[in-house]
TrEMBL record:
This is Glutamate-1-semialdehyde 2,1-aminomutase. GO terms for cellular component: cytoplasm. GO terms for biological process: protoporphyrinogen IX biosynthetic process. InterPro entries: 4pyrrol_synth_GluAld_NH2Trfase (IPR004639), Aminotrans_3 (IPR005814), PyrdxlP-dep_Trfase (IPR015424), PyrdxlP-dep_Trfase_major (IPR015421), PyrdxlP-dep_Trfase_small (IPR015422). It holds the Pfam family Aminotran_3. Its EC number is 5.4.3.8. It comes from Mycetocola miduiensis. It comes from the Bacteria. The modification N6-(pyridoxal phosphate)lysine is found at K274. It catalyses: (S)-4-amino-5-oxopentanoate = 5-aminolevulinate.
Length: 439
């Protein structure tokens, strides 16, 4: 069946024909591609068309799709049993590996780790844990930051909500939404003001280590450190969301990367997803032992899951992290730099105003004259230029994220030959963006 036929069929049984909104191509139009195979830097759709992939399953394919060692680890684990509903030795191995990797400048902020199944579950649990530990109810988040789809986090979120221009979600009770205070990103004055007014009620500040769900938007230099200092002055915790950036932009995530040219700061809790599961449903939260010990069965904050620490997912995560070597990160950085500069050059030749947004090897493009610093500025760009750019690249054999508000992902499999294929498609795509008109 063709992509068109599959989408028509899917809409009869699946809401919107997709199981995650951005897959519907609502932001760019057209028929979404139904993928049937992936290998290295390439994916193949139901029509048999092969594309260079710059989505990478939204991050976990750091080694490339279907890496043989990861596949072998998954196959071996599956042969031993798909799920036990009991503890396995590999869960501890993965927790130990994460603790070892997330360290910098002699600081190891993760003392204990709890495995869950999704990034949403990790952030939801981290927030519940922060509230239980502090005995406070309020949460501070930043507009445009996406921390999953639990009720209290869908106020001015990014990701699919940015793509669909939805300010919130139906079905969220007003009383729950009221427990989340939403502030402009990179605005320390706003943060100081809210702590001055309600500091003794705030359980935690949650922030993406570097925003990557309204396009890539890195924090101002020193912002994360100042945020931590302010929160801790008022007895609040800080939850650093590294679901996208963790183990993707460096072996110790954006936290470790940012310490290279900025002040030291130590988050109380981290959340991880994507790379930690190597493409399988796996996520985690971790941090200080005194906080983590508030989780059941040792503490009063309840969290459970039949599939938490699933042995097949843990095998994929271990195999991926063990192979995410310094050479892999060097390759990601090189590929990211070459590709982002090539896209920028192509757009510049056509006179298209744009800014390259970077956070380590994550990058995206804003169709504007100046770098945005917050969600409102990111939304003000000429986003209508992206759809024709996207479809021209797709026609040229390159699969981009189907929204201007998403990050681009390279992998260790994006070698010079693959990058050349992408670069060949850029001139036509840049011309399409230049000739685009607002709707």
């Amino acid at each position: 069946m063709s992509n068109d036929d599959l989408f028509t069929r899917a809409k009869l049984s699946i809401p919107g024909g997709v199981n995650s909104p951005v897959r519907a191509f609502g932001s760019v139009g057209g028929t979404p591609r139904f993928l049937v195979k992936a290998s290295g830097a390439m994916v193949t759709d139901a029509d048999g068309t092969e594309y260079v992939d710059l989505v990478g399953s939204w991050g976990p394919a750091i080694l490339g799709h279907a890496h043989r060692d990861v596949v072998r680890a998954v196959q071996d684990a599956a042969a031993r049993g798909l799920s036990f509903g009991a503890s396995t030795p590999a869960e501890t191995e993965l927790a130990e590996l994460v603790k070892e990797r997330v360290s910098a400048l002699g600081v190891s902020p993760i003392e204990k780790l709890r495995l869950v199944s999704t990034g949403t579950e990790a952030t939801m649990t981290a927030i519940r844990l922060a509230r239980g530990f502090t005995g406070r109810d309020l949460l501070v988040k930043f507009a445009g930051h996406y921390h999953g789809h639990s009720d209290g986090l869908l106020a001015e979120a990014g990701s699919g909500l940015a793509t669909l221009a939805m300010p919130a979600s139906a079905g969220v009770p007003a009383a729950i939404a009221a427990q989340t205070l939403v502030l402009p990103y990179n605005d320390l004055d706003a943060l100081r003001a809210v702590f001055a007014e309600r500091g003794d009620q705030i359980a935690a500040v949650i922030t993406e280590a570097a925003a990557a769900n309204m396009g890539v938007l890195a924090p101002d230099r020193g912002f994360n450190a100042a945020l931590h200092e302010l929160a801790h002055e008022h007895g609040a915790l800080v939850i650093l969301d590294e679901v996208l950036t963790g183990f993707r932009v460096s072996s110790s995530g954006y936290w470790g990367l940012s310490l290279a040219d900025g002040p030291l700061y130590t988050p109380d809790l981290f959340t991880f997803g994507k790379v930690i599961g190597g493409g399988m449903p796996l996520a985690a939260l971790g941090g200080r032992a005194d906080i983590m010990d508030y989780l059941a069965p040792q503490g009063p904050v309840y969290q459970a899951g039949t599939l938490s620490g699933n042995p097949v997912a843990v095998a994929a995560g271990l195999a991926t992290l063990e192979r995410a070597t310094p050479a892999v990160y060097e390759r990601l950085d090189e590929a990211s730099a070459v590709l982002s500069e090539a896209v920028s050059d192509a757009l510049s030749r056509e006179g298209v105003a744009h800014v390259v947004q970077r956070a380590g090897n994550l990058f995206s493009f804003v169709f504007a004259e100046e770098r945005p610093r917050n969600y409102a500025e990111a939304q003000a760009q000429e986003s209508w230029r992206y759809a024709p750019f996207f479809h021209a690249m797709l026609h040229g054999g390159v699969s981009l994220p189907p929204s201007v508000f998403e990050a681009w992902f390279v992998s260790a499999a994006h070698d010079e030959r693959i990058l050349s294929r992408i670069i060949e498609a850029l001139p036509a795509a840049a011309r399409a963006a230049a000739s685009a008109k607002p709707a």
